[in-house]
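Input for the complex:
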Amino acid sequence: MPHLYPETELHNPQSAKPPLDPHLKALENEAIHIFREVAAEFERPVMLYSIGKDSSVLLHLARKAFYPGRVPFPLLHVDTGWKFREMIAFRDEMVEKYDLDLVVHTNPRGAAENISPFSHGSALYTDIMKTEALRQALDAGQYDAAFGGARRDEEASRAKERIYSFRTPDHRWDPRNQRPELWNIYNGMIRKGESVRAFPLSNWTEVDIWRYIQAEEIPIVPLYFAKKRPIVERDGMMILAEDPRLELLPGEVKREEVIRFRTLGCFPLTGAIRSGATTLDDIISELETATVSERQGRAIDRDQAGSMEKKKREGYF
Amino acid sequence: MTAPALANAALDETAVAHPSQEPARVARDSRPLRLITCGSVDDGKSTLIGRLLWDTKAVKEDQAASLQRDSNGKQNDLGLPDFALLLDGLQAEREQGITIDVAYRYFSTDKRSFIVADTPGHEQYTRNMATGASTADLAVLLVDARAGLLEQTRRHATIATLMGIKQFVLAVNKIDLTDYDRARFEQISHEFRELALSLGVRQVTAIPVSALKGENVVYDGRASMPWYDGPTLIEVLELATTRSAQTVGFRLPVQRVSRPGESFRGYQGTVAGGSVKPGDSVVVLPSGMVANVTKIVTFDLVRNAAVAGDAITLVLDRQVDVSRGDVIATIDSQPMTGLAFDAQLVALQPEGIQPGKRYWLKSGSRRQRVQVQPVSQLELKSGKWNHADELPMNAIGKVHLAFDEQAIFDTYEQNRTTGAFILIDPDTNNTVAGGMITAKRAALGGIHADESRVILSLPADLADQLMATELFASRREDAEVRRVTAAKAVEIIDTIDE
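Predicted:
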């Protein structure tokens, strides 16, 4: 439904913030340009919403790109059923607050075959509950373009991925045969069944994300901030121990630690870090002195060399 | 700063430890600099980029550790990880030990942040280099100090120049292997400056570098090269200028029309040149209708001005017909509109560019059909333009573009956004060329089909006069003059009238 915007509402009450620095402004402009281009060129765009910090920035940029209009496409959350509880609460709050259309999809095989990261291992679990689920959801919605929050600085195979990343009808990515991408001119021509994944945050780094969240006062899931939380140590990772489905193995003990998360995914596969960072300033300064990358806490990247490229070829975001 | 015992420390077992220094704080006061690195594996390009990332702490310990795992302990002779593996992210590249595609890298210092387009050096990858160069403000050209300038150096410099890059850094690498030979360095820099000048590039900085030892990259190499008192690579990059289209006329390619309700109608797009403020008179192209700007709307506030690069929503004072693909521009200095243009392009796909084929052309948000007629091809070795009827992959060519409907362009020289375009093959939907507008051509009485020429049947004296003019000389391919008697000319015209 189109919304009516009386002239007086054009003056956004949040405008008291100081202007963005030129670096963040340039990144913001580029992302807004990409959002508008995709929305104009494709018939059924959708935005992948994973509830993490990058998704929060992506959502904020989408709202900016189409203001004073509404975000003209739905958000899609692929819910594995193993997300942190606080993530789901946060998601529902955002949808309510910003008047968004949300589509949630969970692979029915998860419940039918009782698939869990504990019993099936991270590789198989990710393949079914994330990659396969995403393909199902994209097919069901007949989406011809899907926005994602991936950044090129995250991982080596992403460094070569285009901003408009072409996918075959079965969602495959062919890294050796990508369309050249020159200037800011994007080729959105596809045949029926084919699709494009669009990455407005391609040129952002992790620090850019945090500084933008701070400058724009973007809400994020509280798990990013340090707090005393119950954890259990497993495979060298500190896992949040609040979900009753987490069964302690022999020798494991639940204890409380002051921790936070640098990235958020499925709780059994996401390691916490010891940190006292309770504010955005703390997080940024921690990041600037960090000696390990953010994906270090992600089990799914560590399965095998080139594992992200392999997942992406198969249709993972 | 000097290289703080880095080499020595690294020679020990602590292979992945960073030099101890203050962490790089993040740039806040300038736009990111986009640069392209040109050179081949043999010149040490991967090592140079790896060194930049390493010494600015853009590589984290777990990434370095995974490098060591992947390279089976293969290290360079300073005990540092094999930087090339850090850069070649695709499995095929790792397996073959080559770079096959453009990769983008990010690092920053306390003054600025940088986006590096890392492209392969060999001739068969000219297309990748053109892609990387399209968005770059500056090119770093790498040569091996022992080998000096190569044919590929000229090729890289030529492509970078064609793509509009006006700032060059020549990194004379492996200077340590010449015993830091000053005369050798100066000879190479002199030769390069001459080459750059012949291409019209004046902003050249030459730096003697050892990427392997980290000299004159981020840290200075004074200890080994007391004779060099110029800047390090990173210092040049920190001070380089980013391209700006603010000096030219206002341009807003319209991406979409925002109509959230009856009371609001805004035109959304990214300012592609100049600036705009409420009250300005603007023209909508191609229709030519005129209106005044009433408001510049963004999420944060109603702004009193917008400049090149800003993503905005423009509100006009009257109902005019504006749709996606139109260009809103300043009245005083409008872009060119027309049906025929001259351009240079780089052919990006194995099929090349075929004469007379109808492609899709996309420029800004405007997409339209175009017929492309190759005219000549650049011989990269010599810099000569040779006649060509078609352009194979990786060729750089001059072409004529003929449109069915009005096209809107600036020259690329004047505006790198409104002067640039891509060609899309309607059969494959693939991007087959990147192009740059050089001039508008006068329309030839509506004849644009391939092989077509205007035939002028003129009385002999008039024909001779016409053929003597400069204008005609420049359009010789387009028209053929036939000398006839005045009576015959009248007869021909009578036939046409019937």
